[in-house]
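Sample entry (533 residues):
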Amino acid sequence: MERFFNTAGPNRPEKEYTIDPLTRFDLDDILALIGQGKYFVLHAPRQTGKTSCLLALRDLLNSQGDYIAVYANVEGGQAARNNIESAIRTVCGTITEKLGLVLQSELPLSVRDKVKNLDANEMLTSLLRRLSMSLSKPLVLLLDEIDSLVGDSLVSVLRQLRAGYDDRPKAFPQSVILCGVRDVRDYRIVLSNQDIITGGSAFNIKAESLRLGNFSKEEIHELYMQHTHETGQEFDEACFPMIWEATEGQPWLVNALGREVTWSMKENRDRSVRIIPEMIYRAQEHIIYRRDTHIDILIDKLREERVRRVIEPIISGETDVDDNMIPSDDMQYVIDMGLVKRERGKPLRIANGIYREIIPRELTWSTQETLIQEPQWYERADGGIDVEKLLLDFQQFFRQNADSWIGRFDYAEAGPQLLLQAFLQRVVNGGGYIDREYGLGRKRTDLLLRKPLTDHYGGPIQRVVMELKILRKSLEATIADGLRQTAAYMDLCGSVDEGHLIIFDRTQTKAWEERIWHRLYEHAGHQIMVWGM
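Predicted structure, serialized as C-alpha cells:
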C-alpha cells in the first residue's frame, strides 16, 4: 500500500514517509546522559517530531535491555490547571498505564492504588519511588508535553521529581527527560496566589537542555525521494530550493507541502505527473489559505503582547531597534515557538517563507475582507495586473482612510506596509502570489508580485518588484537609497516587468498634497516608478 506524507500525530513508518527519528538528535549524547543518571530537557516548537523521537528512543532503550523506559504524555493534566490533586492524579494515572503496557503487567496499577490516598504533593514522588524499587532494571521516564501543565500543578510535578532525585536509580528513575515547547528555565509560572517563579528554581537538577532541530536540506530531499521511489512520481530538482525557502526544514510544513502537492491537488494523484515549481507555489498558497491547525496555532500566538513586541519591529523593519532592545524573555519565548530565528551575526528574522507570508496576511485578514476593490478592476487584456492603475487607486484610498484603517491594526507601527499588502492581497487572491522579504533593521519591505498570465503550469508570469519604505530622513536621501535597493532587488529576482518604490511619509503636519505624488526614475539600467504617500 502506498505511504503518504504525515501531517498529524507521531510518524508510523509503515504508513508514512519517515526520516529516522533517532538521527534527528545526538543519540550518543542522550544515551550518555541517561547512563550518567541525568535529568534533562528536550524541547522544540510544536509539530517538529518530538513525540516520534521520544517513542523511538523508548523503543531503542527497551530493546537494548539495560533499562525499562516508559513514555507518558501528561497533557491530560492541563485541564486541572491549579488543581494540584486532579493534575497529579492524571499524571500518575498516565505513567502507570503506559508502564503497564511496556511490562505487560498489572504491577504499575497495583502500585498506584497504594499511593492514591497520599497528599497530592507527595503522590508522584512516592509512586515513582515504589515503581523504581519494584522493577528489575532502572526506570527511564520520558514525560511529553510537560509545559502544558499550569501554575501550581506544574510546580508540584517539577518539585516532586526533584524530591526523589537523590534516591536514583535504586529508588527513583535513573533518568527523566522532560519534553515540551520551551526549555524549563524559560518557564514563568504564575501560581494561584499570583506569585511568579521560574522553572529553573523549581527544577534545579536539570543537567542539559537539548533542542530538536528542523530537517536539513538533505533530509527533505530524502523524504521526498521516498515518494518518488515508491510511486515513480518525480520532482523537478528546481522544487527543492523552493521547498527549503518556504519551510527551512520545519517538519510539519515540509510534510504538509508534500501531502498537498502529491495528494490534495487531485490532478497530481496521477503518478505520471511530474511535480514542477509552479505546483509548489500553488500548494503553499493552499496551505496558507486553508489555515490548518498548525497555522491556526501560529495565528493565535500573534495576538499575545509578548509576541507582538518581537514581531512588530521585524515587520516594520525598524532601524532604531536591535536584538538587545527586545526583552530577552519575549525573544526566547518566540524563538522557542519557532516563529523567529536568531543566527550569529545576523538580525532577528521570521523563521521561514510560509510564516513570512502568513503573518502579514493574518494581521490584515479583516482588512482584506472589508476592502471593496475587486481584482477585475485592475486586470489587463493579457490577464496581468495594471500595477500603475492599482497604485494610483491605493494612493487615494490611503489618503482617505490611512488614519482610521491603520488604527485598527494591533501592529500599528507596521501599519502603512500592512495596509498596502492587504490591498495587494485582495487583488491577487486566487490568481497570483506575493513574495515578501522583511526583517529587523532592513529599512524596507521587499515585495515580488507574481501573476500567472494563463491557467497552465509553466506559462508566462507577470513579475513586479515593489519596495516599501518609511520616510525617516530627507526625501532625496530616501529616494536615493530606495532606488539603489529596488534596482538591487530587481536584479536579484531576475526577469521582472516593472519596479516600484513606495515611500510612506508619516509626517502628520504635512499636507496630503505634498505627500501624494509619483514620478519615473532611471537607475542602474532600470525604469523605476517612485510613489509618495
